[in-house]
Amino acid sequence: MEPDTRTRILDAAEKLFVAHGLDATTLRMITAGAQANLAAVNYHFGSKEALIEAVFRRRLTWLNEQRIAALDAFEAEAKGAPLKPRQIVEAFFGVAIRMAADKGGGQSFMRLLGRTYTEPTDFIRTFLAEEYAEVIARFNAAFFKALPDVPQEEFLWRFHFMMGALSYAISGADALRLLGPVDDSDPDVLYARLMSFLIGGLRAPLPALLPASQAKPAKKPRTRKAA
Amino acid sequence: MEPDTRTRILDAAEKLFVAHGLDATTLRMITAGAQANLAAVNYHFGSKEALIEAVFRRRLTWLNEQRIAALDAFEAEAKGAPLKPRQIVEAFFGVAIRMAADKGGGQSFMRLLGRTYTEPTDFIRTFLAEEYAEVIARFNAAFFKALPDVPQEEFLWRFHFMMGALSYAISGADALRLLGPVDDSDPDVLYARLMSFLIGGLRAPLPALLPASQAKPAKKPRTRKAA
DNA sequence: GTCAGTTTAAAACGCTTGTTTGAATTTTGA
DNA sequence: TCAAAATTCAAACAAGCGTTTTAAACTGAC
User: Measured between alpha carbons, how far is B69 from B12 in angstroms, rounded to an integer?
Assistant: First the structure.
């Protein structure tokens, strides 16, 4: 059974946005790919901007619900005790990686999302901020409970770094391939690679925030300062 | 002394590309910002694509020369002995962070570069691949010498993850600010934060490439830890 | 079969884009 | 000083954009 026009447009737009970017993808490309008339986009969505939002919302809402559900599951299991940092990372990034491994559309969407997160366009930034507000608040709280000694701002930065690594992990296999032969065929392997890296970064010792342009202590004592 | 038209165009284009992206920045915006005539871009550069390349080449060539110089300095100091991973990371990412801290143009350029690295446009991808080829080869070799037990591919991935973290560190302070109050005014602090995170991720234990979810034969049976 | 409501179709709209033109102006070199 | 070269300028170009319009083709309920 052929999906209806609206769905075909969403699918075609998603793929084209990944391949060419938001601006470079024209409505004519989209409607051609969806085998629909040019006017169909404005009929079903109202405008190109609204279509972009619809493309993102379709996947992103579900993705963040999954993230919160994963966090809920861990917290229920912990019965009030703080979670392990590894569990928090797993709940947030594991879900994303798994969605990125889904060949049925999720893959191309995640590549788009990672690239769009730093997009300067206003309406996208505000839209993403709204979509992410709740999930970030939840994970921020969970992390603060798990590691009360780590300053909130330090966590935000590390979370941000992790988002960057995730973004490149998902969207940048092509860029990586320019540097040498790599294999990104197995999502489980990518997942293991990224998780190892993320946990390592998250648990790194807190930086000595002195304006020290000179030598810093190369190694810290094995006290678990950061994580 | 007023810079000549060509330079004014490069400066204006760089700032506008950062603020609005490559596509969304029009030649009319650029020439207006440079106080030049619309035709000046095509006269001095030939086309908008050529202007984009010129904007990138002006900074990127110098940046990668600095990176290689930093690596040379460390290797001269080591007198043939392998470098410490920390030094390799410092040579590559430290230079970038320092350039990102430079208010005199370097800052805005680095925000642009980080965002562009995952750009899907063909001519940019091939251009960046050329510009990066030498420096990547050098750093890849240095890292392999330092940590011969870490598979090349694993290093490439971790390098890629680090690039993602760097990219977000530089270009994404605005995005981060949507999640909570952060302070990115002191580049030394950002440098310390990112370096700590990167080293932590780089030195993380190698992932057990056996997928935990289901039984799937790992590609390389390797149990040793990284770094 | 009829008819309202929904969806598709083809064509054109106004506008902006990068680029080109050809003349005016400034700069250069002997 | 003066012609030649380099640069700037205003204006126009064709092409492509997102959007709108108007009519035709469906769809399901009665």
Answer: 29
Q: Which protein residues, judged by their CB atom, are less than 7 Å from any atom of strand D?
A: A 25-29, 38-39, 41-42, 47-49; B 4-5, 36-40, 43-44
Which residue on chain B is closest to A117 by alpha carbon? Answer: B175
Distance, CA of B162 to CA of A172 (rounded, Å): 12
Over residues A77-96, the pLDDT tens digits come to: 999 999 998 899 999 999 99
State pLDDT tens for residues A128-161: 888 888 998 899 899 889 988 888 888 889 989 9
> Which of A60, A115, A67 minimizes the C-alpha distance to B168?
A115
Q: How many CA atoms lie within 13 A of A191 on its CB side?
A: 21
Distance CA A33, CA A102 (A): 21
pLDDT bin (cut points 50, 70, 90) of residue A36 is very high
Instruction: Give the pLDDT confidence of B34-47 residue by residue, as tens digits.
Output: 999 999 999 999 99
- How wide is the angle at C-alpha A173 spanned by C-alphas A170 and A174, nearest 5°? 130
Q: Which residues are CB-contacts of B215 (< 8 A; sequence separation ≥ 6)?
A: none
Coil, strand or helix: which one is A15?
helix
The residue that minimises its CA distance to C1' of D9 is B37
* Nucleic acid strand C within 7 Å of B41 CB: yes
In terms of Cβ atoms closer than 10 Å to its own Cβ (0-12, 13-18, 19+), residue B79 is exposed
A30 touches strand C (CB under 7 A): no
**For chain B, what percentages of helix, strand and coil (3-state, to nearest 5) are there?**
65, 0, 35
Nearest CA in chain B to A111: B118
Domains and CATH numbers, chain A: 1-46 (1.10.10.60), 55-202 (1.10.357.10)
Chain C nucleotides reached by a protein CB under 7 Å = 7-12, 16-22
What are the C-alpha distances in Å from B129 to residues A112, A116, A118, A127, B166? 21, 21, 21, 32, 18
Q: Which residue has the higher pLDDT, B1 or A26?
A: A26
User: B83-107: per-residue pLDDT in tens?
Assistant: 998 899 999 999 998 888 877 777 7
Residue A103: both structure tokens together = 């060949």
Rounded Cα gap, residues A51 and A74, in angstroms: 35
- Supply B76's token pair: 């001269």
Average pLDDT of span B207-212:
60
- Tally of residues, chain A: 227
- Contact call for residues B155 and B140 (beta carbons, < 8 A): yes
Instruction: Tell me which chain A residues have a C-beta less than 8 angstroms from the C-beta of B162.
Output: 165
